[in-house]
Amino acid sequence: MKSLIVFAHPNPNSFNYALVAAVEKKLRARGDEVRKRDLYSADFNPVLDSQQLAEVQQGRVPSDVAEEQHEVVWADNLIFIYPLWWFDRPALLKGWFDRVFTNGFAFAYEAGQLQGRLGSKRVMIVITTGGSEADFGADADQLCSSGTRATLSFCGVDQIIQKVFYAVPAVDDAARQAMLLELENLTETL
Ligand SMILES: Cc1cc2nc3c(=O)[nH]c(=O)nc-3n(C[C@H](O)[C@H](O)[C@H](O)COP(=O)(O)O)c2cc1C
Asked: Which CATH class, in words, describes the domain spanning 2-188?
């Protein structure tokens, strides 16, 4: 299997990076080919500007977007790992979706009907939060992941597993180790 991990966190010493490492370790151990898109380190440009918008309407994409799309096509599994920032993805990752999941690539309208083009992908979404699960009320997982899930569902993805790790800054090291182990076990189900 081929797995692409897309992640967005500005601090290489963060817990998010530890989560990325845990997933990568587990995938490699079972023989997956793994590629990573570290959006901060790569200095990915998240701004969908007027030029790209015009190009997409003419069926073209900029070279940096084509590169990302090539990676998405390559992968059987797409894994997104990020901290919750204002109930959504960090802007850098949101911009990655804005620019990479273009009309004609991730979805298309055929005879007026929406066609998701990424239906063959299996997806895992991993999110960390500052707030506790109780802070988010009922359907906490749904609230934290709704933007990303909706984007992927729109593009035809129906095989999504997700995990939200709550209150990460407030828990002790033992709890973090347990989270890493839990994510390793979940990765096996991908
Ligand atoms: C700009 C910003 C917005 C945030 N918004 C939220 C939020 O909406 N809900 C929440 O529970 N935590 C929020 N947080 C806290 C982060 O989600 C939390 O610190 C992070 O997930 C912890 O993982 P890390 O140690 O890898 O950074 C926010 C943090 C920042 C910097």
From this structure: alpha beta
